[in-house]
Design a protein that fits this description.
By secondary structure, the protein is of the alpha+beta class. The protein has 14 helices and 27 strands. The two termini are about 30 Å apart.
């Protein structure tokens, strides 16, 4: 018998791991720190990717693909960048194996050592900017707006499926601009794309903000982020957009002739989201019975279960409803497995997070009705089979809105304003959540708070109103509150 899902209140981390495995999102790999994304998890990622790809193209971006391997010398050209990623890099040193002399297996062939070691990409700024040097010559070549969908490797020591793995899938945008203002506008525009995706499709409210210097992306002048709050009161960074200034352009000598025939360094951005969004989705909405997926991203939006399974009158009604839903662009499946009881099926589809379940029994056919259950609240209604397609279409939108509203209430209820360090520590221990507090702006105070409480400044909110106050640690003047939380 499969292991039951650990309840959230017993062990939240174990609940998450159980749910990811039991629901069929992912599985553990033979390679430590890596995961296998199973069909349900990959279908969810495909839906996310399709929406984001459309949003990127609507803002003028095009897709390309760059190599997985990066010459080691490239990574050392931008000092902050190499320092930020050095501890996470996987390095290729040889290009061939051979049989061991004693026949015990294969070993690295010492004669196949690479002239220059290669880094398995942790991110692609270096190899892309090396390429852009040839692609950009004139202001007419700008802006250059490119995105790639790829995998990356960051050798994490403590891993958890989707949230932090040694290899993961993502997209990374890399753009080049003629002016500082254009590049900053691009970084802010892509942050807005991410925030709209999170709220309109994932039904996950986010705080838009700027990272402190100590939390910036390695090599960036400014890092913008969206921060979400999970059900256990911890924050999750769900996406970032970076204004890179001219750092990579200078490191790789990427210049252009401007309209005055003067040679200038280009201005750059990069931005990305990853399969971590699947982990965010799980922890934002799901419950002890399984996944709760927002309809706009759910791989399967509606399942129809006939009772008994293969009785023709029930199947006739099921096919009529499925055809009507399909014509409206709703993904629907009729369960034809006659080896499982209806109650077992109900539980399995709840585990997989299917937003709407329609059940059709013998009496339903006699009365011209069906039973419709929504996954998020478990509420059931009985309505006429004729009106079911229109009802379900409206219900899917209602579920989408309801999930966002519920998540917004959770964030509001778990955002705390404090003015003393004593209250700061107490709130973190007793309740967690977002904590808005004054900070004196120094890296020393930021590090002290992290050391004492394990809470970090998640961001300086972009929409925060100016507010005079005093730092909760030093008592020095502060002009606005920043967002603290313990985080994944």
């Amino acid at each position: 018998m499969a292991k039951a899902i650990t309840p959230r209140h017993v062990d939240y981390a174990e609940w998450y791991n159980d749910l990811v495995i039991r629901s069929g999102l992912a599985d553990y790999s033979a390679v430590r720190g890596c995961m296998i994304i199973k069909p349900l998890g990959y279908a969810l990622w495909e839906n996310m990717r399709a929406v984001l790809d459309r949003m990127f193209k609507e803002t003028g971006h095009v897709n390309a693909y760059f190599p997985l391997f990066i010459p080691k010398s490239f990574l050392s050209r931008e000092a902050q960048h190499v320092e930020g990623f050095a501890k996470e890099c996987a390095v290729v040193t040889h290009h061939r194996l051979k049989l061991a002399d004693d026949g015990s297996g294969v070993v690295v062939d010492p004669d196949a050592k690479l002239e220059e070691e290669l880094i398995v990409r942790p991110t692609s700024e270096t190899i892309i900017w090396h390429t852009y040097r040839d692609w950009i010559q004139s202001y007419r070549d700008l802006p250059l707006l490119i995105n790639q969908w790829a995998n990356v490797v960051r050798w994490e020591l403590r891993t958890r499926p989707f949230l932090r793995t040694a290899e993961f899938l993502w997209q990374e945008g890399h753009t080049a601009h003629a002016t500082r203002q254009e590049a900053i506008a691009e970084a802010e525009r892509m942050l807005d794309v991410y925030a709209r995706f999170a709220e309109e499709y994932m039904a996950m409210p986010v705080v838009r903000g700027i990272k402190t210097p100590s939390e910036r992306f390695a090599g960036a002048e400014e890092t913008y982020c969206i921060e979400a709050l999970m059900q256990d009161g911890k924050a999750l960074q769900a996406g970032t957009s970076h204004f890179l200034g001219q750092n990579f352009a200078r490191a790789f000598d990427v210049t252009f002739l401007d309209q005055n025939n003067q040679r200038q360094y280009v201005w750059a951005t990069s931005w990305g989201v990853s399969t971590r969004l699947i982990g965010a989705l799980v922890m934002t909405h799901s419950d002890d019975d399984g996944l709760v997926l927002p309809p706009r991203l759910a791989p399967l939006q509606v399942v129809i279960i006939t009772i008994p399974t293969v009785e023709e009158p029930q199947m006739t009604v099921a096919r009529q409803i499925a055809d009507a839903l399909g014509r409206q662009g709703i993904s629907v499946e009729i369960d034809t497995d006659d080896t499982k009881r209806a109650g077992f099926k109900f539980a399995e589809y709840e585990l997989r997070g299917v937003p709407v379940r329609i059940a059709i029994g013998k009496r339903d056919v006699e009365h011209g009705t069906v039973e419709i259950a929504r996954r998020d609240t478990k509420e059931k209604v009985t309505i006429s089979s004729e009106s079911a397609p229109d009802y379900v279409r409206a219900l899917l939108e209602e579920i989408q809105r309801s999930l966002l509203d519920r998540a917004k209430r959770f964030v509001a209820d778990n955002t705390h304003y404090v003015d003393t360090f004593e209250d700061f520590e107490r709130i973190l221990e007793e309740r967690g959540g977002f904590v808005m507090a004054h900070w004196d702006g120094t890296a020393q105070t930021e590090a002290l708070i992290k050391e004492r409480t394990k809470a970090t400044i998640r961001c300086i909110p972009l929409n925060a109103e100016p507010e005079e106050g005093r730092c909760i640690v030093t008592g020095k003047p502060s002009h606005r509150r920043v967002l603290f939380a313990r985080a994944y």
